Amino acid sequence: MNDHPLHIGRIPPEQVYAILHSGAEGLASAEVRERLAHVGPNRFEVIDRWKLARTLGRQFTNFLAILLFVAAAICFIAHRINPGEGMGVLGWALVVVALVNALFSFFQEYRAERAMEALKQFLPHMVEVRRQRGLVRLPAEEIVPGDVVILSEGDKVAADLRLIDAKGLLVDNSPLTGESAPVRLVAQAQDKPLVECDNIAFAGCTVLQGTGTGVVFATGLRTRFGRIAQLSQTIRRTTSPLEREVSRMIRILTLIACTMGASFFLYGVASGKPLWMNLVFMMGIIVANVPEGLLPTLTLALVMGSLRMAKKNVLVTSLGAVEALGAVHVICTDKTGTLTQNQLTITRMVAPLTGAALAPEAERSLTRLALAASEVRESGEQLLGDPLDVAVARHWRQTLHGTPHEVRRQVARSFAFDVGKRRSGGIVEDENGPVLVVKGAFEAIAPMLAGVAAGTALDLREQVAACETVMRDMAGQGLRVIAVAHRPLSAAEVASVMPEEATAEPLEHDLLLAGFIGIEDPVRSEVPQAVARCHGAGIEVLMITGDHPATALAVAAKAGIVRPGETAHCTGEQLKGLTVDDLIEQLRQGVRIFARTTPEQKMKIVSALKRMERVVAMTGDGVNDAPALRAADIGIAMGRQGTDVARESAQIILLDDNFASIVDGVEEGRTVFANMKKFTSYVLVSNGPEILPYLLYIVLPVPLALNIIHILSIDLGTDLVPSIGLGQEPADPEVMLQPPRAQGQELLTPALMVRSYCFLGMIEGLWSLLLFFAVLIDGGWRYGTELAVDAPLHRSAVGITLATILLMQIGNLAGRRFEQRSGLDAGLFRNRFLLAGILIQIVLSWAILYWPPLSRALGTGPVAPRFYGLAWLGIVLIFALDYLRKRLVNRRRKG
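The structure assignment produced for this chain is given below.
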C-alpha cells in the first residue's frame, strides 16, 4: 500500500470533505470569495496582458515601416534646409502612410483575435454546484477548490474532482489520454498513481453516462488539463512561410531603394548640385522604389481569404495561416470525426457460424437482445449513453422502427459495461420468462459459451473456431465486432442478482451465442474525393490514430489514403523505440498509417517531417494534442468535438470537423499565394516609370517628369483597388493539380523583378516619358533649357506623364491575371474590384488633366486631345508586348 505517495485518490470518500475543508452542503459565499482571491479564476490559458501591445509594436518595426519613418525624417531635415520646397508636407504624408499601414495590419490581426473570442461565446460552460444556499448553476470560471460539483450525462468536467459518489458514471477521457474507450468511475479509495485512479474526474473530460458528485481539488492551471495547456502555450510557434517571405521581400525592396537613393545622392553631391536638391532626389528614388500600398493589399488579401475560408467552415485565427495552408506538403489527420462521421453505426448483423446476413426477424431479435444489455435513455429525439449503446438504440429506432423505451421498460436489471471484463449485461422479460443477455467482445464471452447454434454437427471447440474466423473477417473490414449471447433464467437466479451490489458473474455460463453485430464509424462521403484531390496536388496524407491497426488500415483504404490490402503501418509501441532518423526512414519507405499512438507521439512525427523540410499541417482535438498543434506549421483544431485548449493552440479551426474542409482551405491558400504574386508584380511595374524620371533628371539637363506626391498618388491611390481586385481572383481550375511549392519558393523572384522593372516597367516608363517630352517640345521647350515647376507647360507635361502611367496600368492589370493566358476572358467582367479599379484609373487619368480642382492639387495641366489619345494607345502597347512575351515563353517551355 505504500508504493505510491499519499494523494487524494487514496483517501476514503468520507474523509474527502475534511481534507479539502468543505462539507456536503458546499462552501459559504465568504469562503468562495476568499478562495477565488487566493487561487484565481478557473481558467486554462495564460493571460498575456501585453499581447495587443506587442502586436501593435510589431507593425511599426518591420523594414518598410522603419524605412518610411526614416524617409519622413529626411524630408523634415530637407524642409529645414529649404522651407519652400514642400518637403515638410511630404514628410507628414510619409508618416501618415506608415501609420495607416501599421494600424490597418494591426486591426486585421485584432479582428482575427476577436473571431476566436466570438467562437468561445458559442461554447458556454456552466457547472452545477452545491453551495450553502442550495444547488446553483455557475460559469466554470467561478468554481474553487472545495466546491461540491454535480455531474450528469453530457456534462464537461470543469475542474479536477475527487468523487464521493458515482452511479454508473462513464467518462470519456480521450481529450487527455487519446484513448477512445470510456472509463467507468467509482468513489472508493484506490492504491494507484493519481493519474490512473478511477475515482478522479479530470477537467476537460466528458460524462457519457450516469451521475456523480465530486469535490474540486484543483482548478485552472493546477489541473492536469491546465498543466498541459500551459505547456502548449510555452511552445514557440515558428513563423509562417508567408511571414518569412514578406519579411524577405521587404528587406530586398528596402535594400534596393536605399542603395539607389544613396548612390545617386552621392552622385549629385559629386556633380555639385545643391544639398536640398540631392535630398529631394534621394527621397524620390526611395519613395519610387518602395511600394507603399503593398502591405495593406497583402493584409487585405489575407483577410478576404480568411472570410472565404470561413464560408467553407474553416475559421482562421492567424492571418498567416491563410496562405500557409496552401503551402503544406503533409496533412497529418486523426481518424474519428475528421475522416469519419464520429457516429457509430450498425452496418452488419450476421449469423455467428457462417457470417451470413440475418433475416429481418432474426435481426430484430438480435437487436432487441443487444438493447437489453445496453444503458441508454431517450431525451426527446436525442439518445444518451455509451456511444455503442446509442448505436444499438438508433438501429432499433431508425431501421427496425421501434422505440428503445419499449425494450428498456422490460429490463429487470442492468449490468453496466465493465472495462476490465469488456462486457455488459441485462435481464429482460421474454414471452418465455426472464433472459440473461451478455454483450461485449467475443474473446470475453467465448469462455462462457455452451453452444452457438442449435442443430449443428460441430462440437463446441469447432463452433468457437468458426466464430473466430467470422469475427476476424469482420474486423479486417474495419468493423468493431460485438458478440451477443443469452440464456434463460429461473426466478431464483433473477432474485439472486437483484441487490444493487450483486454482479452478473454467477449467471454468466452456458450461454448461447445469438450473433455478431458489426459497427463502424462510417467514412464521410466527401473524404475519398478530398484525399484524391490532395494526392493530385502532391500533398501526402498521414493518419494518426489511437485505434487498432486493422481498423486504421481499413478506414484509410476506404478514405483513399492507402491502397486496399496495403498493410504498412507503425504502432505507438514501435514509435517508442524509433529515433527521429529511424522514423524519417519509415516515412520515406511509404508508411502513412500510425495506429495505437498517443497524442504525445504526434510531436515526434512532426519533428521527423520538419527534418525532411516538409510544411506540416496537424489536426487534433484533445488537450494532449495542443503541443503538437503548436509545433506544426499549421495547427488545425476541431470546432465541434475539440477542447478549448486545442482550439487556442491552433491557427485554424474546422467548424464542421471535416477533412474535406481542410482540402478546401488548401485550395484557398494556394489561390491566395497565386493572387499575391499577381498583385505584387502589378504594383512593382509602376516602380519603373516612377524611377526613370529621377534618373534622367539627375543625369541630364531635363525637367523632372514626376514628383513624390505623384508617386504616392499612384502607389496609394490608383494602384490599390486594382491590386485588391487581383487579390480576389477565383481559384485557377489547375491550382490543385500542381505540387505544393517548395519551402524556398519566393513571392519576389528574380524573374518577377526582371519582368516588372526591366520589361513592363521600362515599357511604361519609355512611353510615358516619350509623351512627356512630346508635350514639352510641342510647347516650345528646347533641350537644356530650365523650366519652372509651376510653369503651365511643365504642369501639362507632368499631367500627361501621370495620366499615361495610370492608363497603361490597365493593360498591365489585364496581363497580370494569368501567367500564360492573355487575361481577357469573361472572368475579367465578373470581378467587381477589377472593373472598379479600371474605372478609377480612366476617370482619374482624365481628371488630372482636365478637372481644375484635382489638377491644381497635383500640379498638373491640360494637354491637346491628340496627346491624351496617344496615352490611351499605351494600354494596347503594353498588353500586346506582354502577350507576345507570354507566347514566346510558352513556346520555349513546350519546346
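Interim note for the steering committee: The domain at 686-895 is CATH 1.20.1110.10 (Calcium-transporting ATPase, transmembrane domain). The longest helix spans residues 87-121.
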